[in-house]
Design brief:
Blueprint (H helix, E strand, L loop, with lengths): L2 E3 L9 H7 L8 E3 L7 H6 L5 H13 L5 H11 L6 E5 L2 E5 L9 H15 L5 E6 L3 H10 L5 E8 L5 H8 L5 E6 L3 H12 L2 H6 L2 E3 L5 H4 L4 H12 L7 E5 L4 H11 L6 E6 L4 H8 L23 H7 L4 H7 E5 L2 H15 L5 H13 L6 E5 L7 H8 L7 H7 L5 E4 L3 H10 L2
Parallel strand pairs: 4-12, 5-6, 5-8, 6-7, 7-13, 9-10, 9-12, 10-11
Antiparallel strand pairs: 1-2, 3-4
Helix pairs in contact: 3-4, 3-11, 4-5, 5-6, 6-7, 16-17
Length: 431
């Protein structure tokens, strides 16, 4: 399988190059030259298949031309050492829980897969992974790569804009993980990473790759759990195609769901749930994409004002705004509505949402039409936002043991400004 740049000005790349480089030479995102459709027999049998079996079949379709089946299936099995279950919480609403991995966030799937794929492609020369995070990406990537020989990870995060527990998950690890506390917002962190990739002199000094969802090895495996969710609905006797609602920040998670649909997964339509960072929602209204500085919200992992994966969505739909709108609708959920939704859902159903899941649940509940059935993503465990969740609910939130362990560590971070020269100088000094 070959990969091309969304900017159309870079040479096509092999899977290995796309994974190791992260970003194309023209600053575009890599897209597979084709999206394979799975055979009809797969969909006939999917209700009887395990999560791992489904995922191996999907991985074969995307990566099987480049990686022998035994190696690829081992990577999938090691990645999915935990479940991503679905539960019915209302008559027509199911939740897809994506927080059962090591860092209790949906990004564990993509981060663990990418760590193993990068190690598979490694030629024993040191690799430096740059990752910008607005919350959960940093912890998932840091823990996915922790202790991987020959790989150093630099996690860039906005000072004061991630929850204390999220911060603990990537600033207390040490070893091959370095946390860089940037005096700015997430978009500043993301810009620093992208500028580093475009710096030919820097790349001559050190091999760089990205573990954000700009990397094909990060976002494509996230399609695994959408197949699993639909299969479980079928196992429960639900045969119609569901509406899928995805809380969206950098849009890698939604992009993975769209790719799953292109592979043949039966989905009626999609809802992109935004917090008050509404760039994509506004695009859906008038067809104009206008990035802007992000603003801080309760759903901090979605605080993105210029989502990278918009480029992939735009490419997927032939750069046609009407085609995007025909398949995806949007919603904006502000902080007050997040708080109200958490309380209402818990009171009505007994299910405790985190702020990001609250965006998804609210958008789905308000957006479902008569007779439709829907699934929304619960992307992180509520305990990752402990102080705010307890303030909103007046409940004592149980903290899972593996999360509590992070909180006992000592913070190790390097403070930096948001200027590129300072960031570059730091990287060069670390060689």
């Amino acid at each position: 399988m070959m990969y091309y740049s969304t900017n159309g000005k870079a040479p096509e790349a092999t899977l290995r190059k796309a994974v190791v480089n992260g970003l194309a030479e023209d600053r575009g995102l890599y897209m597979p030259r084709r999206i394979p459709r799975l055979p009809a027999r797969f969909f006939e049998d999917m209700a009887q298949m395990s999560f791992q079996e489904l995922s191996c079949a999907v991985a074969d379709a995307f990566f099987g031309e480049d990686i022998p089946a035994d190696d690829l299936h081992r990577i999938v099995q090691e990645t999915l050492s935990f479940d991503c279950p679905t539960y019915q919480i209302e008559e027509n609403i199911w939740v897809l829980e994506l927080f059962h991995g090591p860092t209790l966030a949906f990004k564990d799937v993509g981060a663990r897969f990418m760590a193993r794929l990068l190690a598979y492609f490694s030629d024993n020369s040191p690799v430096n992974v740059l990752v910008a995070t607005s919350g959960d990406t940093g912890s998932a990537v840091a823990n996915g790569f922790l202790g991987v020989e020959g790989v150093r990870v630099f996690v860039l995060y906005p000072k004061g804009k991630v929850s204390p527990i999220q911060e603990c998950q990537f600033t207390t690890l040490g070893q091959n993980i370095t946390a860089l506390e940037i005096d700015g917002c997430f978009d500043d962190c993301q810009a620093l990473v992208k500028n580093a990739f475009m710096d030919a002199d820097l790349r001559a000094k050190m091999k760089l790759t990205s573990a954000n969802s700009i990397n094909v090895a990060r976002f494509l495996p996230q399609s695994f759990y959408y197949f699993n969710a639909v299969a479980r609905l079928r196992r429960a006797g639900i045969s119609e195609a569901p509406v899928i609602c995805v809380p969206s920040g950098n849009f890698g998670n939604l992009c993975a769901a769209l790719f799953a649909a292109e592979m043949g997964l039966p989905v009626k339509r999609f809802i992109a749930a935004n917090n008050s960072n509404r760039v994509f929602y506004d695009f859906l209204q008038d067809g104009q994409y206008r990035p802007r500085p992000s603003i801080q919200t309760l759903a901090n992992a979605m605080d993105v004002g210029d989502p990278s994966n918009f480029a992939r969505i735009w490419e997927l739909y032939g750069r046609d705004a009407d085609a995007v709108r025909a398949h995806i609708s949007g919603a904006v959920v502000d902080d007050k509505t997040i708080e109200r939704t958490i309380l209402e859902c818990y009171s009505d159903t007994g299910y405790l949402l985190d702020p990001h899941g609250a965006c998804g649940y609210r958008a789905l509940k308000d957006g479902l039409r008569d007779g439709e059935k829907g699934i929304f993503c619960e992307t992180a465990h509520p305990a990752k936002f402990l102080e705010k969740m307890e303030e909103i609910t007046a409940l004592e939130i149980d903290v899972p043991q593996r999360l509590a362990a992070f909180m006992k560590g000592t913070k190790q971070s390097v403070p930096l400004g948001k200027d590129y020269e300072g960031f570059r100088d730091y990287l060069v000094s670390s060689i």
